[in-house]
Write a structure and sequence with these properties.
8 helices; alpha/beta; globular; acetylcholinesterase activity; COesterase domain-containing protein; Rossmann fold; CarbesteraseB; five-stranded mixed sheet
Length: 237
């Protein structure tokens, strides 16, 4: 007989949240082979954490003798908002977080017995989208040499969005938290002062108005000057 307790929410907004989240978890087995697997979690770029218990890499490290690393990155509007380009909110900040983690791993993994030339990315859901996005990022070149993509790639229609769509959602969010002003600088200054929980809750309200089913308001944008350094669609084609 099944217990009648309600299911735990996948997106648990009661957990501590902060933009200061650039951390990683590492499992180093005895007698490591030198291989490194970097896991990028999914969650629609809306929620998730590398520290969730089902992402514990201890068993995988023990069985494969590879070093298992779970990386964190900014989510939602903090990681994937877009507003007027590089001068204000460039877009794809969460991908830059991942890139920074990969750069750190490249420069430091030998101190843990790892081989910097044997780094594989393993992504699940939008984590797989992220992993394959690094194939089109000039500054990610040389930071990994393999990809395991589970349930997604950046080439899927839900993998990235037009800048105009994400910017429209960003403006909706600014209006909901009363930060939409005539001056773009004033608008951004106002947003930076908002509590992260308020931004998350109001993002839910924006999602309810979303005209596109099955996608969150803030995703990878196809054009940027900081990660893809160009148009992703053109690079894929």
């Amino acid at each position: 007989m099944l217990d009648s307790k309600p299911l735990t929410k996948w997106h648990d907004k009661s957990l501590p949240m902060s933009e200061d989240c650039l951390q990683l978890n590492m499992w180093v087995p005895k007698n490591t082979s030198g291989a490194v697997v970097v896991f990028i979690f999914g969650g629609d770029y809306y929620s998730g954490s590398p520290s969730l218990k089902y992402y514990n890499g201890a068993a995988l490290a023990s069985m494969t003798k590879a070093i298992i690393i779970n990386i964190n990155y900014r989510l939602g509007v903090l990681g994937f908002g877009y507003y007027k380009g590089k001068k204000y909110v460039s877009g794809n900040m969460g991908l830059l977080d991942q890139q920074m983690a990969l750069r750190w791993i490249k420069g430091n993994i030998k101190n843990f017995g790892g081989n910097p030339s044997k780094v594989a990315l393993f992504g699940h859901e939008v984590g797989a989208v992220s992993a394959t996005a690094h194939l089109y990022a000039p500054n990610s070149k040389g930071l990994f040499n393999k990809i395991f993509a589970s349930s997604g790639t950046v080439q899927h229609s839900w993998g990235y969005e037009k800048n105009s769509v994400v910017e429209k959602n960003f403006i909706k969010l600014m209006k909901k938290v009363k930060c939409y002003h005539a001056s773009a600088s004033s608008s951004i200054n106002c947003m930076q002062k908002k509590n992260v929980y308020q931004l998350v809750n109001m993002t839910d309200a924006v999602e309810e108005e979303n005209e596109f089913a099955f996608t969150k308001p803030f995703l990878i944008v196809e054009k940027d000057e900081v990660f893809f350094k160009g148009n992703l669609t053109s690079k894929i084609i």
